[in-house]
Amino acid sequence: MSTSRSRSRIAATCSRTAGLSRATARSGSAATARCSRQAILASSAAEPTPPTHAPDPRVIPIDWITLPKAELHLHIEGTLEPESMFELARRNGVRLPYPDVESVRRAYVFGDLQSFLDIYYAACAVLVQERDFYELTLAYLRRALLDGVRHAEIFFDPQTHTARGIDFATVVTGISRALADGRELGISSRLIMCFLRDLPAVEAMAALEQALPHRELITGVGLDSAELGNPPAKFEQVFARAVEHGFHVVAHAGEEGPPDYIRQALDVLGAERIDHGVRCLEDPQLVERLATEQIPLTVCPLSNVKLRVVDRLEHHPLAQMLDSGLCVTVNSDDPAYFGGYVGENFAAVRRALALGDAELVRLARNSFTASFLDEAAKARHLAEIDAHIQPA
Ligand code: ES4
Ligand code: ZN
Question: Closest ligand 1 atom to the C-alpha of 338?
């Protein structure tokens, strides 16, 4: 495993064009140093090679934060920052069980997915008016732009709100109005409604019915919340009906649940993308299928550490997933709770897993190819990535 890993990193690094940064190459690797020297020589054959320990002023480092990318796994309710939580609580007369912002942040220590969901759903009580959903979404889009996000496919959980007496229309129009304004700011988007898998399937079916008058605002359906004990097959009929209505299909699977949940998401629900999917590595046949069919997996590294899916980022399976030929993307999940937006997720895996330039570029390219954008838009974004890493 480690042999194939280092081989692929060398190959990836050596396929870079002259002028790219080698700051991401793991220090002490003779092979990457050799590759970097070749790149420098190609760009300036007449000049002597500088010592490898000194930064080369001719190499322009890539800005990974502003590298154009798409965010494909983002729960809009998970972008509620503690400051906004207090502001909305005051505005809507909602009592919070915390005295201040600092004590909220201190509470964000989670043992597993369920311990996070308990706090996350409770916090949603401050979202009441259409303008609350609008402001939440617009704040996210403004923040995402700073991280190079050009396109965002955003989840929302309608049942979390309708169960509190908030109209489906209030939620979906508030979010969609912000998404329309976001387009003016230079960020395209799609909206995906998720069913809460810990609730009965009939309730998911009712949510789908409520969505139909807003069909044109919603691109796809997904499946989230407590995974263990709630297999995808529980929602077979709901997803069949969603497909009849032409919705795209995604599903959280293989975050805490076993590889078989990933198979069910694909074969029973017709999922086009798997959200998380990290546990696929326990099943080599499944990995082979996911790689062959290039089924995208929207991986959320900082989320996986916070929810203890992995014990530390240095042990995250993202690198192994890349090496296995999987179409993986890096995403932020619930950034207000997990310690970072998508740029911070990129920066964190780059450092912790010593990813090379080519691997980071692949992650950004995958984010567009795995999106629900049309082919022309995908091509435009991929060209923009090329321009970013290879300035004229
Ligand atoms: C979620 Cl991290 C995660 N997993 C499953 N469902 C979710 N809803 C919001 N965040
Ligand atoms: Zn998620």
Answer: 2
Which residue's CA is the nearest one to ligand 1's atom 1?
225
| pLDDT recorded at residue 50 | 55
What residues are in contact with ligand 1 under a 6 Å CB criterion? 75, 78, 113, 120, 224-225, 252, 255, 303, 333-334
Known catalytic membership, residue 255: yes
Q: Whose CA is nearest to atom 6 of ligand 1?
A: 225
Of 71, 135, 153, 255, the active-site residue reads 255
Q: Cα angle vertex 202, ends 197, 207, to 5°? A: 75
Going along the chain from its start, the domains and CATH numbers come out as 2-61 (no CATH), 69-385 (3.20.20.140)
Q: Give the pLDDT confidence of 152-205 residue by residue, as tens digits.
A: 999 999 999 999 999 999 999 999 999 999 999 999 999 999 999 999 999 999
Name the residue of 73, 74, 75, 302 whose CB sits within 8 Å of the most ligand 1 atoms, as the mutation to test its pocket.
Answer: 75
> Percentage of residues in the chain with pLDDT exceeding 70?
86
Cβ atoms within 10 Å, residue 184: 7
How far apart, in Å, are the Cα atoms of 246 and each of 211, 219, 243, 366?
13, 9, 5, 24
Which whole number is the average pLDDT over 360-368?
98
Q: Would the CA dihedral through 369, 374, 375, 377 be positive or negative?
A: negative
What's the predicted TM-score (pTM) here? 0.88
